[in-house]
Every structure is written in structure tokens, then in C-alpha cells.
Here is the input.
Amino acid sequence: METALTTALQAPAQTAAVATFEDFGVLVRQHQRRVYRVISLLVKDGDVADTLTQECFLRAYQHLGTFRGECRVETWLLRIAVNLVRDHVKNRRASFWRRLVGLEDADTVSPIAAPHPSPERAALARAEVQAVLAATELLSPQQRAVFLLRFVEEMSLAEIAGVLGLRVGSVKAQLFRALGSVRQTMKEQQWR
Here is the structure.
């Protein structure tokens, strides 16, 4: 069953002019289950999957004009969905690190966040993070920057290279040395 929107999406220059809200509703009904299923498999949380599925179709509607027709509509929607899941996971991890380090209040935590660990486990995790951060103080400034950008900000090696004005190979070497040094410091402090 092909809708006017699907036809319009195959001819991207006319997408904005031809696509109606009703056509988009048909598109949503055609692809919603598959998008939800993919997101649900990736996040393993029904409530989060519901929210991200809605966000996926909202973004698709907002960006209809950017669809170039180089792939199927379903592929485009799934690409949006996977990117939303990546952003969700990245933001949740970053939030976790900020909470542990004390940069974010518990009150500002998203209601989607995972259940809180036991107080003992949280205290142990906080102490371990503080020990790792203390171990980074023993690194050279460049190694510390590479380590923190990689593990706290979760940047890719290419992004770190761009930020620090280094080659990717240099970033890898600095990260390797930093990891070795932090592991050695943690071993000496009997963390592992």
C-alpha cells in the first residue's frame, strides 16, 4: 500500500509540497511496530522505547525535507531510531558519570534513568571514580585530557584528535600510556 507521502518521499524535491499530515499518519501506522521493535531491542525498556519511537516519528516529520530518497523510507526511519538510541545511551552514561563525580544533582536526573543502586554500592562506585580521577592527576596534561575526553565525555578517537589538534595515532598512543598508568596506580592502591 503506497501513500502519497511514500510516493513523495521517492521524489524528494516534492516532499514538503505533497506530503500531508494524514499521509504521514499512514506512514507511521505502516512502520511504527518495526521502529518500536528495533528500539525496544536496543534499550530493553518498554517505556523508553515508547518515548523514543514517538521522538523518531516527530523528527522524521520535522525533517521530511531532508530525506533525499537514496534509501527506502523504512531505512531512513530506522536510521533516525538508532541515532536516537545512541544519543539516549550516551546521555545516560554521561549523566551517570556526572552524578558519581558530583557535577549533577540527583534532582536533575531524568525520570527514565535506571533504578538507583544500593547506598553501599553507590558509595563504592563513587570512591572508585574518585580514585580513578585522582590517578589521572598523575598523568601528563595531554594524557589526562585524552583519558577524560575518552572515558568521561565518551568521545571517539577522531573527535579527540580534532579537539586536541593531534593525529589519531598520537591519541591512541597517549590513551594507551594513560590507561597503563591509571591501571598501575589503581593496582598499587589495591582497587583491582
Q: What stands out?
A: Confidence is low (pLDDT under 50) at residues 1-18, 103-114. The longest helix spans residues 73-101. Residues 99 and 107 are 10 Å apart (CA to CA). The chain is about 70% helix and 0% strand.
